[in-house]
Amino acid sequence: MFKARMKFAKEGRAKYISHLDLMHTMQRAMARCQMPLWFTEGFNQHAYVSVALPLSTGYSGECEFLDFNITSEAVPENAVEALNDVFPEGLRAIEIYPVEDGGMKVGAIAWSQYRITWGFEGAAPVGFADAVRALFCRPSVEIVKRSKRGEKSVNMKDLMRDLTISESGDEVTAVVTTAAGNNNMSPEYLTRAIRQYLPQYEIPFSAYHRMNVFTADGTPFR
Fold first, then answer.
1. What is the four-CA torsion angle of 175, 180, 183, 187, rounded to 10 degrees?
2. What is the DSSP letter of 221?
3. Residue 129 CB-density burial (10 A; 0-12 exposed, 13-18 middle, 19+ buried)
4. d(Cα 9, Cα 94) in Å, to the nearest integer?
5. Of 119, 216, 127, 218, whose CA–CA distance to 169 is shortest?
6. Which end of the chain is more exposed for a tag (fewer CB within 10 A), N or C?
7. What is the 3-state secondary structure (H, E, C) of 82-95?
8. Beta partners for 61?
9. Which of these ranges, 25-34, 45-54, 63-72, has the smallest mean pLDDT?
10. d(CA 88, CA 11)
11. pTM beyond 0.90
12. Element (H, E) at 80
């Protein structure tokens, strides 16, 4: 038995699959393509599968990771193709590889890079993109952050970096890196900040797509 890790994408309709349903989907797909999954022993046998930093329902991503144990001595040949043949629409395996010596620890993930898309009916409002750039150029953007431990006011600039804004037709797109792990900040807080500080702009549509995840020193997680 050894641990393997799969990098996968969750896009399109699949972004509406909940985390629990995603776990069931992964196990069923692996069974269908005869992946040699390792199961626990005892009365309630189950496969070990674990997703690093599960996406919120409604978010898409192209840099998602699933850890699982297999009984063979190597990842089966054509495992990626076999899984993609049985995955539902929107799920896509990118690579599968053995995780030697435990691999990079999920707890080492410190940053997530997202693409945020703000959509409008018709052309994007005049001045919106410049106003958003100016807002997040401020040294402090205070917002109430919610967690399981309650609410607190934070400067979200401490929890984000590398923000770029671009405009095309009826959409404005932001690419931003936000804190992950224990002190994480959802990219939705950028939308909330715009609504709080720039109430003259209505945002009828927003979408969030994770592009990459990094350790504290900026190394891509793998």
1. 30
2. P
3. middle
4. 7
5. 119
6. N
7. HHHHHCCCCEEEEE
8. 10, 210
9. 45-54
10. 11
11. yes
12. helix 79-86
